[in-house]
Design a protein that fits this description.
The chain contains one helix and seven strands; from the N terminus they run ββββαβββ. It is of the alpha+beta class. Strands 1, 2, 3, 4, 5, 6 and 7 form a seven-stranded mixed sheet that branches. The chain is globular and about 40 Å long.
């Protein structure tokens, strides 16, 4: 993790998303360096995306991440008085250390541009 980044740990709150799965916020990494400048990274644990035994595919997880951006991410940014023009949301089927590879884990990522109170999906 870079020197500018700050971490806010998730509090274990469970969130229901449109697919019906329940996800939990693992952490938020503020001011992480992205290719175009600072990025806010919201990392969620979503056990239903697991390769073995999971029921949520990548497309469905993407729709859930858009929902999380619109409902949780924008609220958390306001709550913490943080502004970010770019957000990366990730879902992993297990808790993971940021930046460490785990070939057994299933992970999905979506990138969003924030314009006012709207999350706009970006190609990642």
């Amino acid at each position: 993790m870079d020197d500018q980044a700050q971490v806010t740990l998730g509090d274990g709150t469970a969130f229901a998303v449109p697919s019906g799965q329940i996800v939990a916020l693992q952490d938020i990494i503020w001011n992480s360096q992205g290719p175009d400048g600072p990025v806010a990274r919201f990392r969620f644990i979503a056990s239903d995306i697991a390769r073995e035994g999971g029921s949520i595919d990548a497309e469905t997880a993407g729709q859930d991440m858009l929902h999380l951006c619109q409902t949780i991410v924008l609220a958390k940014m306001t709550e913490h008085s943080r502004l970010a023009q770019a957000v990366v949301i990730s879902m992993a089927d297990r808790s993971m250390v940021f930046g460490e590879a785990n070939p057994d884990a299933t992970q999905y990522f979506e990138s969003f541009r924030i314009e006012g109170d709207i999350c706009i999906g970006e190609l990642f």
